Fold:
Amino acid sequence: MEIRHGAGTFVRELAPGRRARERTLQALGLVRKLLAEARRSGVSLAELQRALEAELGVKAT
Structure:
């Protein structure tokens, strides 16, 4: 968002590199939340990994 005094508030386009960094930061935040919730629920890392592999249809190496 960009605020221009006397003109209003506008959505500002981000440069592609910055947009990618923002998405990476959002992804990291999502992963941290997922891990925290898994810990609170007693889900092990191995269980979480198997669930992610099943959901994505891939096997991690």
